[in-house]
């Protein structure tokens, strides 16, 4: 897949990408997001995962589940992170954490590198960190 970019990539960049991928040899990647379609994360992952797989890095992608009210709360969190004045009630927080607890029970985040995307699944990290050395949150 990477060879398709040989004629347009700056000199040396493809070799650098291969070298960086080599540093992950023998490791697995796992992405977690809130949706497989729509939005920037899904667009990025639909392109990124074939790249990492073509570079020899086993990569998976899991998506969290949630009801409409869960995603309304996560939208408020997203807006707050972008500077909006948002008030998240205790009930909303409890519901959000309960949904993530259900997702934590369902998901098997056992890859060597787990990348959690955006605010929606962020607190999954709290559920898994006691069993893992580290996780990445990409916001």
Query: Topology as H/E string?
Result: HEHEHHEHE
Query: What would CATH call the architecture?
Result: 3-Layer(aba) Sandwich
- CATH class value: Alpha Beta
| Low-pLDDT stretches | none
Describe the main β-sheet briefly: 4 strands, parallel
How many structural domains are formed by the residues? 1
Radius of gyration in whole Å, from Cα? Answer: 17 Å
Relative helix content: 40-55%
Average pLDDT works out at 90
- Fourth-tier CATH superfamily name: Glycogen Phosphorylase B
Folded structure, characterized:
- The protein is an alpha/beta fold and 139 residues long.
- It has a single domain, classed as Glycogen Phosphorylase B (Rossmann fold, 3-Layer(aba) Sandwich), CATH 3.40.50.
- It has helices at 13-22, 39-54, 68-81, 90-106, 124-128, and strands at residues 29-33, 59-63, 113-117, 136-138.
- Helix 2 links the parallel strand 1 (29-33) and strand 2 (59-63).
- The longest helix has 17 residues, at 90-106.
- The mean pLDDT is 90.
